[in-house]
What does this fold into?
Amino acid sequence: MNKFLSQSAEYLPFLLSGVWLTIAVTVLSLTLATGLGLFWALCRTSGIRALATPVRLLVEFIRGIPILVILFYIYFVMPEIGLDLTAFQAGVIGLALTYSCYIGETFRAGIEAVDRGQVEAAKSIGMRQGLMMRRVVLPQAFRIVVPPYTNNIVMLLKDSSQVSVISVAELTMQGKMLASSTFNNLTVFTLVALLYLCLTLPLNFVMRRVEVAMGKAR
Amino acid sequence: MITFENVHKAYGSHEVLKGIDAEIGKGKVVCLIGPSGSGKSTLLRCVNGLETYQQGRIAINGEPVDATSSTIHAVRTKVSMVFQRFNLFPHRTALENVMEGPIHVLGEDRQAARQRAEDLLTRVGLAEKIGAYPASLSGGQQQRVAIARALAMRPEAILFDEPTSALDPEMVGEVLQVMRSLAEEHMTMLVVTHEIQFAREVADNVLFLDGGRIVEQGPAAEVLRNPQHERTQDFLRRVTHPV
It folds into this structure.
């Protein structure tokens, strides 16, 4: 145990540099994925077939491909058509694109779960589609969506480890490098796992509080 | 004010409205009665374009109602609706529910809209409940907020879709009382209801629908006291003497 602690003190600064990058990748790709996901969901629930159908096909297409393959594609294939991206950029774009589809589906389910009567009530006072979405449907859909969206965030944070395959020096990558140079697999990967838990567990806690707070206004 | 000319509607091959002709005069209260499935709610929902109709014409002050046209939004600001299940916005207080349309649809001044919303809620007897969320209100209270929300649009007519059917019996009276007071002020009202007593006391005219057709229509006193058609007689016997 003592050995574990002393080694941990030695390794932690190196791993923490990976933690920051993990957070950066997660926050950036989550922001992009949320915006894009909301856009996909609005297209799919718009009732306009010219918007809904292409988006549905895109979402099904992306969801059917492993994240790793998407990352390889963006990092290795894009330069061949003249789009040079750093590993960090490629990682963020790949995760954002993939997760925009998952999050978009979550949002769509939330929008569709809002009672039909709410839409009718909004229409009956003369609201147009945009205003109705903004004032009536989305505020209620967000409440419904908090738990599954939190789940998306946790999954995204864990899947950010995948960008290590295209050499982004985030937590998993740093762990792998440290383990192969020190051969202290046990200590290193235990620390890596604990660090991930330090990120994911508070997230669950915070979102549970959000859920309770939002539930009060019902 | 509201005219129906040969209105037809079908869901696929199932015909729900088979040629409705009627006229609702300004300031009149008209009750639509009839067995379930007779098409009365559908007819009501065609008036503000929540349902489309395939043939014929519905017009409000001569302006045709077309649910697929962009003019429908303007129609809906003139004809409010009160729903069976209230459909209040659960994330907004009673006051905010009433202010929502005036501020965001009609573009009224916030302060003025608030004042008017308070007045309307006071009018329906809910002055103490302005800050309450719908979930903390009883069914009768929610329906009265919904009526205030409809009134806040300064409508020329209000459509009521079975406004008391989802209420516990002891709350029916408070909602009917508010509707009665609106009738006394000559608000044009089209009411789908099973409250025959209310129709008898308040309605100017009654339309009896069955199977997508108007079987009988006329002054409430005549149709309800002395129905001419066998179907009407049978229906009224059943609803007034259920056992």
Summary: The CA atoms of residues 45 and 205 of chain B lie 19 Å apart. Chain B touches chain A at residues 48-50, 73-74, 76-77, 80-81, 83, 85, 87-91, 100-101, 104-106, 133, 135, 149-150, 153 (CB under 8 Å). Chain B has a mean pLDDT of 94. Chain B has nine helices and ten strands.
